[in-house]
Amino acid sequence: MPEPFTALTGIAAPLLIDNLDTDTIIPSREMRTTGRTGLKDGLFAPLRYLDADAREEDPAFVLNQPPYRGAQILLGGANFGCGSSREHAVWALAEYGVRAIIAPSFAPIFAGNCVRNGIVPVVLPAGEVTKLAEAGEPVTLSLEAMAVTTASQRFPFTLAEDDRQMLLHGLDAIDLTFRHQPQIAAWLKQDRAARPWVYA
Amino acid sequence: MVARLEGSGVLLAIDRVLLHERTGAAALNSLAATGRTPLDPARVFAMIDHIVDTRPGRTDATTIAGGEAFIRETRAACETAGIRLFDIDDPAQGIMHVVSPELGLVQPGMTLVAPDSHTCTQGAIGAYAFGVGTSEVEHAIATGTLRLTKPRSMRVWIEGQLGEMVTAKDLALALISGHGSDGGRGHAVEFAGPAVEGLSIESRMTLCNMATEFSAVAGFIAPDDKLFDWLHGRPLAPTDALWGQALAHWRTLRTDDGAAFDAEITLDAATVSPMISWGTSPSASSGIDQAVPTSAPRAMLDYMALEPGRPLAGLPIDAAFIGSCTNARLSDLERAAGVVRGKHLASGVRGIVVPGSMEVRRQAEAMGLDRIFTDAGFEWRLSGCSLCFYAGGEGFAPGARVVSSTNRNFVGRQGPGVRTHIASPETVAASAIAGCLADPRKVLAHA
Q1: Set of chain B residues whose Cβ sits within 8 Å of the Cβ of A195
Q2: A7-169 belongs to which CATH class?
Q3: Sign, CA torsion B85/B89/B90/B96
Q4: This prediction's pTM
Q5: CATH architecture designation of domain B277-445
């Protein structure tokens, strides 16, 4: 079950690359087991290592630089997490310790995967993300205030209420949906009569 | 819709869930670990496609280290859960987005999800089909529903006639290069208009397949008589009285005339040339008769070893790949074979054809297409996702320039350092013969 998220303050690592795809976040070749763990060393492998097999770090990559190493907040470019639906990308980010990503837009499947794993996908206009990156100050992200703030700036954001509640309380989506079991059963009963071929 | 949730959320009933061996075990094992069971396993199906070997004589062994575990654990988990698996030796085995429509498993008006971004392909069958992560798949299997926020609506209206050797793939690349890789973000996209109606059902699947490269939530096409004729008689399509009942319902699944969309894009098919990508995003594509744009991002050009202003046609290639959920259906292979017929791969070029399903493979062989490809020097493979992406096993050599009928040209997608150019099967075939990126219209003219 994901850890609840109310607010977090930390250094935000800038990774302002548009269309950063999930193949880059975790390449298929780094998905070595059938489970959800053991992925953090493969995170951003194509960018993070000079030699991925030897795990030789590239000092030019932001998360290899001292202030940003282990950052819990990332600043991203537009269409962050596009490409493959692999949830391993989010599992790898979560295992590394990332709790929030602030970007101008997210690929839809990736954003859904974030919410299911306790990572907050925050959409802010590109100009505001750039300002956060340029200021380089610690960033506070609050799901109660629904704003990203620094010593000198404050940017409000929105999130679907269902997603916000799940993140705030660390709720399990399946448990939550099971509360609707009577409605699901009633819906299935009428749908079996209306569209019998779907169930044939 | 089963229920309204807090805010603007809804609980949407999911009619079909598809799994594959790359994440099937992760979803089913985690479901079992929490003591949950599938709500209705008869509406869940699993395929072996993502990492299965596509070389003849294959077994559970994969070209990636440890890949067998993914196949075996998925097989075991499906058996425990009572889920039908189209296993390696099943005559219906193949890529999920080829097999599902081929079997009539997906039908108009259905909701369908799979842990694969190209699930939007199946929107061509008039279904609301979209890719999700493993957790969402688990949710859909356990509850028969998903918690969703209603997306905004977009209509992509395509008018005009497609020119010779211009295909649905070219329309998709023209749309994405014109409006960006996130041009469809937040929207469910309906493809409509005379050019869309005129496409074959298989070509419609190619168009909808690329909706995820547009960052759309889903892509779909309204069902019509062409589709109903195509579906009739497929193994899992309704029969007898149920067919009539289904058909009456499907005919109601049309967007109202004059309906308002949150966004509209119009594209004239007649202005579209055969397209080829030159960068590392599908949006970085141009007509094959164009040059690398002067505005192209430097990082992309460095990776692709290209210079601005260089004409795309004539760029030497190392390999050509025809396959994937985008472009490996029978009509794709037929059109590519039409270009290849009587010719041979250029010297030093490796050519590979991977049919989208074993059924496509059998039909192609019955038509003699396999001979056209093998006589030309192409490898003729068994079905699977194969070299569409590199999973650590088989791949192209670092630095290799590959022209590919697939959907993604990301950095390293087909192997570390591999330079992928995506295009239609025709353009891939023409380039394979020419030994360089080639305009299929010119290859045809010289035939």
Answers
A1: 109, 246, 249
A2: alpha beta
A3: positive
A4: 0.96
A5: 2-Layer Sandwich (3.30)
